[in-house]
Specification:
The complex is a heterodimer of chains A (116) and B (117).
Chain A (H helix, E strand, L loop, with lengths): L3 E3 L3 E4 L5 E7 L5 E8 L3 E10 L2 E4 L6 E7 L2 E6 L8 E8 L11 E2 L3 E5 L1
Parallel strand pairs in A: 2-11
Antiparallel strand pairs in A: 1-3, 3-8, 4-5, 4-9, 5-6, 7-8, 9-10, 9-11
Chain B lengths: L2 E3 L4 E5 L4 E3 L2 E3 L6 E7 L6 E7 L6 E3 L2 E6 L4 E6 L8 E9 L7 E4 L3 E6 L1
Parallel strand pairs in B: 2-12
Antiparallel strand pairs in B: 1-4, 3-9, 5-6, 5-10, 7-8, 8-9, 10-11, 10-12
Classes of the chains: A mainly beta (116), B mainly beta (117).
Chain lengths: 116, 117
C-alpha cells in the first residue's frame, strides 16, 4: 500500500515561530503537494514539487516555503507563523505526467495546526 | 489557469434517494485527469475515481456512477439509493499542466452530502 505520512497529527505553535511540517511518501512518486483545508474553501494548493529540489507555487503560497531535498520527503515551512495560518494541512503524492503511468493522488492523514 | 467549480455547497437527502453532485472544470490543456474524492467525518480523503480526458465513457461502480461530458466540461457523480454511510464531503479535482510542463492538481470547494435516515 502507498503510504503518505505526515509527521504530526496536531500542532500548536505561537505567533512568530518558525514551523516545519514534514511529509514522507514511500512509493517513489515524483509529484508531491501541500494543501490547506478550511471550511467552505475546500483544498487550496500552497506549493507542489515535481522533482527533487524543484518546486512551483500553487494558488496561495504567501507566507509559506517548501523544501524537497530528497524524493520521498516534502517539507512545508511557515517562516513566521500567524493566526491566519491556523488550518488543516494535507500532503499528497502522485505519479502523473505525459507518457508516464498515472496514479491518483494519495493523501496523508493531515496535520491540524493551531497558531496562538 | 485551471479551475474546478462545485456549485452545490450542501445537499441533504433522505435515505434511498438518488443524488447527483455536479462538477464543472476549466483547463486549456487537451490532456488532463479528473478525480472524485470522498472525505468522511474521520477526515481521510478516499479516492473514488480517475478519468483521463480521452476517455468519455461513463462508468458505474455499484451504486456510484460518473458522467463525463467534454462538451460541457462536466464530470458529475451520481449516488443511487443513497445510504447514511454516504454522508461525507465530496471533492472533484482536476490535474493538468495548462500548457506548462508540470501537472498541478486543483480541487473544487467540495459538496457536503448529508443522507438522513
Amino acid at each position: 500500500d502507498v503510504k503518505v505520512t505526515q509527521s504530526s497529527r496536531y500542532l500548536v505553535k505561537r505567533t512568530g515561530e518558525k514551523v516545519f511540517l514534514e511529509c514522507v511518501q514511500d512509493m517513489d512518486h515524483e509529484n508531491m503537494f501541500w494543501y490547506r483545508q478550511d471550511p467552505g474553501l475546500g483544498l487550496r494548493l500552497i506549493y507542489f514539487s515535481y522533482d527533487v529540489k524543484m518546486k512551483e507555487k500553487g494558488d496561495i503560497p504567501e507566507g509559506y516555503s517548501v523544501s524537497r531535498e530528497k524524493k520521498e520527503r516534502f517539507s512545508l515551512i511557515l517562516e513566521s507563523a500567524s493566526t491566519n495560518q491556523t488550518s488543516m494541512y494535507l500532503c499528497a503524492s502522485s505519479l502523473t505526467g505525459t507518457g508516464r503511468v498515472n496514479t491518483e493522488a494519495f493523501f496523508g492523514q493531515g496535520t491540524r495546526l493551531t497558531v496562538v | 489557469a485551471q479551475k474546478v467549480t462545485q456549485a452545490q455547497t450542501e445537499i441533504s437527502v433522505v435515505e434511498k434517494e438518488d443524488v447527483t453532485l455536479d462538477c464543472v472544470y476549466e483547463t486549456r490543456d487537451t490532456t488532463y485527469y479528473l478525480f472524485w474524492y470522498k472525505q468522511p467525518p474521520s477526515g481521510e480523503l478516499v479516492f473514488l475515481i480517475r478519468r483521463n480526458s480521452f476517455d468519455e465513457q461513463n462508468e458505474i461502480s455499484g451504486r456510484y456512477s460518473w458522467n463525463f461530458q467534454k462538451s460541457t466540461s462536466s464530470f458529475n457523480f451520481t449516488i443511487t439509493a443513497s445510504q447514511v454511510v454516504d454522508s461525507a464531503v465530496y471533492f472533484c479535482a482536476l490535474e493538468s499542466n495548462s500548457g506548462g510542463s508540470n501537472y498541478k492538481l486543483t480541487f473544487g470547494k467540495g459538496t457536503l452530502l448529508t443522507v438522513n435516515p
